[in-house]
Write a structure and sequence with these properties.
The chain is of the alpha+beta class. It is built from 7 helices and 10 strands. The protein has a 3-stranded antiparallel sheet with strand order 3-2-5. Strands 6-7-8 form a 3-stranded antiparallel sheet. Strands 1-4 form a two-stranded antiparallel ribbon.
Amino acid sequence: MRGSVLILLGAFCAVLTMTGCTVVNPDVGHEAVLVRKPWFFGHGGVDSEPVKTGLSFAALSTTYIDVNMQPIQYEEKFTDLMSSDGVPLDFDTTMALQVTNSVDLIEHFGPNWYENNVEREFANTVRQAVRTHGMNEMAISTTAIDDVDSQVSNHLSQYLKQINMPVKLLRVTVGRANPPDSVKNQRIETAQQEQRVQTEEQTKLAEDARKAAEESRAQADNAYRNAIGLSPEQFIELQRIGMELKVCGPGGGRCTFIVNGSKSQPILDAR
């Protein structure tokens, strides 16, 4: 009888223990950092060993913090960052980070480690890097964007090491600058004016070239007329005869010539 009571009491304690505990089951690529909070005896604090993928049990007074150990991409949108020439610019940026030690991270920086320690530093670094370039560079030149990426990456990597944060910077990407609408409209208008000037210049060059060609042709015709000893009237008559040959000669159409005194006028026959 006494033995049966002990068995029942042990089973009851086991059930009570199982129902009065914290179940920890982190997903793949995540770790759970246990934070012990004893009710009566012992010391609380962050457990030195994280719970990795799988089902685990902890005391009811113990809580846990889920930490993503995979690369995490943070997107930040910046508005009105001043360029070196005083133009406010908007940027879309991304930053990829990866936690290397979940326990150290939670113990020293807490669960809001990004918001409290990285986000503001990232914003200040981007702001300072943008100030080293002008609006046109940031909006057009890939070299300027690459330089800003490099400045931000180098500074943040050093910053994370300086504060001993167990987080690795994987990459920083700063998009092209987006200037205000007023600046965009001015740039479009300027581009249109420049294109109009270029078109007019090209038209003038074409007209000048045509004028030069006509003058050269006239000089050549006059030299030919002088060489064969024709008067201007005779040369004009020769040119007329040449045009009639093109129209009525071999390869041309069939013509009927109407003779009027010393002159003749060709009429192109209909086919």
